[in-house]
Amino acid sequence: MERFKHTAHLLTVVQTCRRQGRTVIDFFAQALLANSNNYLSRPSLLPKY
């Protein structure tokens, strides 16, 4: 059951990136870099108002 939640979360990220016109690979690359480097801010999927 847990893996289905992970799959659902990944699909949500993919769909959100596509709707925002963002590259999924770039988003995940930024997230991984930010996770390995505490000085980088993590990318957000929330729209900026």
Write a concise keyword list for the protein shown above.
49 residues, mainly alpha, 63% helix
Shape: globular
| Global Rg | 12 Å
- In terms of DSSP E residues, the strand content is under 5%
Low-confidence stretches: none
Give the integer mean of the pLDDT values: 91
- Number of DSSP E strands: 0
Secondary structure: helix percent: 55-70%
SSE order, one letter for each helix or strand: HH
Number of helices: 2
Could you say which structural class the secondary elements and strand pairing correspond to? Answer: mainly alpha
Please give the alpha-carbon distance between the first and last residues: 36 Å
What can you tell me about this protein's structure?
With about 50 residues, this protein is mainly alpha-helical. It has one domain. It is built from 2 helices and no strands. The mean pLDDT is about 90.
What would you say about this model in short?
With 49 residues, the chain is mainly alpha-helical. The chain contains two helices and no strands.
What is this structure's SSE topology?
Elements (H helix, E strand, L loop, with lengths): L1 H18 L4 H13 L13
